[in-house]
Amino acid sequence: MPTPPLLALRGVCKRFGVVQVLKDVELEIRAGEVVALLGDNGAGKSTLVKVISGVAPADRGVIEWEGRAVQIRRPHDARDLGIATVYQDFALCGNLDIVGNLFLGREVRNYGFLDEVEMERRTRDLLEHLTTGVPDLRAPVVSLSSGQRQTVAIARSILGDPRILLLDEPTASLGFEQTTLVLDLVDRLRDRGLGVLLISHNMGDVKALADRAAVLRLGRNNGFFDVNTVSQEQIISSITGATENVPRRMAPREEAW
Fold first, then answer.
1. What is the CATH number of the domain that holds 47?
2. Residue range 135-191, pLDDT digits in tens
3. In sequence order, what are the residues at sequence separation of 6 or more whose Cβ sits closer than 8 angstroms to the Cβ of residue 193?
4. Within a domain: 149
5. What's the superkingdom here (predicted)?
């Protein structure tokens, strides 16, 4: 029997008022792979991320974790499973240094006092595994480049050893060198066995990094692709609707909600 994916969505639906944002969406993420989530503005990508991260729970459908049905009703549920999210705005405190940002809200204490030495050691060990050229750990985050801030945001998200990482447009505001830094970082995360969901509009990043691509159009699946074998034009056609490729559901499932 094949190993089930880390995370699988089966027939997920989400409505806000009278607007049906997601309709029967399917998605699978396996350990050690990068899945690109693509679609035009309004396709439902951000809502799908909110469903997976517990910010906006699904109305109907099944979410499976390693083959068993689970419910993600709150961000706490996602974190307990091992799902971490890095949003496009980084959500960092610019006036705090790197160590302070990584351990904000989960500070290490020794006999009731902050253990700054231990937190700095863990921060350095983590960044050295993720990237080259570790910046000054005591520099305020506001002084870092956009690429370095993205690295800090990703490092903070994996401090709790997640198994799946959701990245929302991680290179949208970065230059070439900074983009290369972040893409190298994501590649290292894949090598460490994490499953990564990459939300991006940059087809160059997708072709360079992703293993598979899932396209949403108007809140529905409009194609699954092996990035190594499909052309960029085929993916773009699916995004724009030039080709309608709504897949059949992967397998019938009893709905959990």
1. 3.40.50.300
2. 889 999 999 988 888 888 888 888 888 999 999 888 877 778 878 888 888 898 999
3. 31, 32, 163
4. no
5. Bacteria
Residue-wise pLDDT for 73-102, tens only, equals 999 999 999 999 988 777 889 999 999 999
Kindly state the tokens that stand for 129: 């595994």
Contacts 24+ apart (CB under 8 A), 146-149: 146/173, 146/174, 146/175, 146/178, 147/174, 147/175, 147/177, 147/178, 147/179, 147/181, 147/182, 148/178, 148/181, 149/90, 149/92
Tell me whether strands 164-168 and 7-16 are parallel, antiparallel or unpaired.
unpaired
How, if at all, do strands 113-114 and 195-199 pair?
unpaired
Structure-block tokens of residue 202: 């940059």
Q: Tokens for 66? A: 């390693």
* Pairing relationship of beta strands 109-110 and 83-86 according to DSSP bridges: unpaired
**Single pTM value for the model:** 0.85
Neighbour count for residue 31 (Cβ, 10 Å):
16
Q: Indicate the number of domains in the chain.
A: 1
Beta strands 195-199 and 164-168 are parallel
In angstroms, what CA-CA distances link 6 with 28, 45, 67, 189? Answer: 8, 19, 8, 15
